Structures are given as C-alpha cells and as structure tokens.
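Practice problem: predict the structure.
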Amino acid sequence: MIKAVIFDLDGTLVNSLNDLAISTNYALTQHGFKPHPVDAYKYFVGDGMVKLIERTIPSDSLNEETFKSVFECFMAYYRENFLQNTVAYEGINDLLTVLLDMKLKLAVVSNKADSMTKRVVSEIFGDDIFSIVIGKCDGYPTKPNPTSTLEVMAKMGLKPQECVFVGDSGMDMLTAVNAGCYPLGVLWGFRTADELIKNGAKALAKTPSEIISIIKEI
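Answer:
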C-alpha cells in the first residue's frame, strides 16, 4: 500500500527553466561566452548546479579557474533571481490537495541547493504541504544516489515499497530504482518518455491528475 509520494522539484513540481537559463547565461556572458537557448537547458539541468555550469562552459575553455569564476557569478545572480519566473506547473496544486486528502505523506528531494530548494517550496507551496523538503547538502551525494531519498523515507517511518518517487528525468527514475521506490515519470518536464522508460519508469503521467489514478492502481 502506498503511503507517501516523494517528488523531484525542478521539471516536476515547478518550471524553473527560465530562471536557470537566464542566470547561467548571465554568468556566461560576463565571462565572454555565448549564451545558450533556453530549451538547451532541459539537458543541462538535473544533476545539480556544479554539473549545470560544467556543461554550459565550452569544453575548450573549461578549467578549474574558469569554472570557479563562472560558478560564483552564477550563484550570486541566481540567489537574487531564482524566483522571478519559477512557477508551479498547471494542475500541481490540485494534485497535492488530492494526495493530502488521500492521507498520503508528501516530500521533496532535489539536487538544487538545499537552501534554495526549501525557499522555492515555501514560497510557491507554503510550509504545510510537504512533510520533508531536502536539497543538495554538503556531505550528501546527489541523485541518483539514493542516500537522501532513503533518509527521507526513514524520517517518515516508511519502507521503500510504500513510497512512489515522481520525477521528470532518467536520473529521478534511477533514484527511485536505487532506493526501492515505485518510479513514476512525468512528461511535462525537461526530458523525454524514452529516457524515463530506459531508466526504470514503471508508469508515465501526461498530466498531474493522472498521478492520482496511477497511485490508486499500484
């Protein structure tokens, strides 16, 4: 019996692509690099901010000094602007209301920095929806390593087989598989159905409301 739903954040609960693209392109252009199209960021994001910056700097210019400078510039800008265009996807708020009415516990596990993850969730959804919200913390490996997800389940007092992990990327599906959760992929985010299936998705939702029927059938 499913007792909890653990969500990825970016590309699953919220559309943050524009803010990530604007902030990264700002840092790149400040260092003389060309900006990338917004759609390109669908494949740059997902593995944390370090990987985001590494992927966007031209390979022939990527070195420790350049990375550090671009990363610090990005972080300074993003800290001040990461909620300018980030919004919940259509239907997400209704989904969360129904899941709570079903007496399910809700949590968020993200590769975004922990402080930013908590602030995004608080600003957009308030502080009463999710039992636990955790982002990238020092000493914790990023997804698809299951450490954070396993800790969240332990804090909720639940077994992996009692939890669904919902995400928009192959990395999220691998996280679910590695943690022993039910992997549920969503198709409104940043990646493709093919990627989700190849990485272990057992079901795909085209809309937030479909998540409800999928959970009821598990």
